[in-house]
Amino acid sequence: MNYNPNSRKKEAAPLEDAFKDLLKVYRLEGKFQEKSLIHDWGELVGKTIASRTESVFIRDKKLFVKLSSGPIKREVQMNKSKILNLIDERFGAGMIEELICL
Questions:
Q1: What angle do the packed helices 15-25 and 29-39 form, to 10 degrees?
Q2: Backbone phi, psi, residue 10, to 5°
Q3: How far apart are the first and last CA of the chain?
Q4: Which helix (H) or strand (E) holds 101?
Q5: CB within 10 Å: which end of the chain, N or C, has fewer?
Q6: Comparing C-alpha atoms, which of 55, 37, 44 is closest to residue 82?
């Protein structure tokens, strides 16, 4: 098989679009979004909650958050809907259906 430089696309695609297309082709969009959410958890909830967060993971569209502080855990439980709305705005609706504090 010979490489033909003239067979390449003439238009240059922005890197972000090319990356999204690559994720689509390999069906990795969901996993990438989940990893992005876990990575951005501290940014979403702020320093106080992030500093008391021991672990964050996702299973079956449920976000599990292990917190080391009882008062912070209650705060997160009281603000579940607000946190879920922030996640929906940033990562798209339906990615996370439930937030569970451990």
A1: 120
A2: -80, -30
A3: 55
A4: strand 98-101
A5: N
A6: 44
pTM of the full predicted structure?
A: 0.76
User: Quick one: tokens of 54?
Assistant: 């021991």
**In tens digits, what is the pLDDT along the chain, a chain of 102 residues?**
455 555 555 566 688 888 788 778 878 888 888 899 999 999 999 999 999 999 999 999 999 999 999 999 999 999 999 999 999 999 888 889 999 999
Pairwise CA distance, residues 102 & 73, whole Å: 8
Name all domains of the chain by residue range, CATH numbers in brackets.
Answer: 33-101 (3.30.300)
What is the rounded CA–CA span in Å between residue 10 and residue 90? Answer: 33
Residue 49 in 3-state DSSP? helix
